[in-house]
Design goal:
Elements lengths: L7 H13 L2 E2 H12 L3 H13 L3 E4 L2 E4 L3 H17 L3 H11 L4 H16 L1
Antiparallel strand pairs: 1-3, 2-3
């Protein structure tokens, strides 16, 4: 699943689709005109790019996700860890915590996540 990337404008467009899907391509054009002041051609160009990246599909004028928002973010997180921290979550957390103190609630949430992971 690694390798999915989107520009800032593609991400805003993707967020709109994820919120509204399934959405007709005609309705998507109207939404993008309202939200981003895009012309029909801009919407279809952007949609084609994201369909080519296999993030969305447009079948019979209905746009749906091939990749959920959560799966996209997971892929992006894995790529970030791999490229910047050798794929090591502990190395990332150590670097993060050097500059920022975790709250008691954040520590409890992390402990809970680890416990749930260990139960798997």
């Amino acid at each position: 699943m690694k390798g999915y990337t989107m520009t800032e404008s593609e991400m805003k467009f993707a967020q709109l689709i994820w919120e509204k899907e399934p959405v007709s391509s005609g309705e998507l054009v109207r939404l993008c005109e309202k939200e981003f002041s895009w012309k029909k051609s801009t919407t279809y160009t952007m949609l084609k790019k994201l369909c080519d990246k296999k993030i969305f599909q447009n079948q019979e004028a209905v746009v749906t996700a091939r990749l959920t928002r959560e799966d996209y973010l997971q892929s992006k997180s894995e790529t970030f860890l791999e490229e910047n921290f050798g794929g090591s979550l502990p190395v990332f957390l150590a670097a993060f915590m050097k500059r920022k103190n975790l709250s008691g609630q954040q520590i409890a949430e992390l402990k809970d996540m680890i416990e749930k992971y260990e139960e798997r």
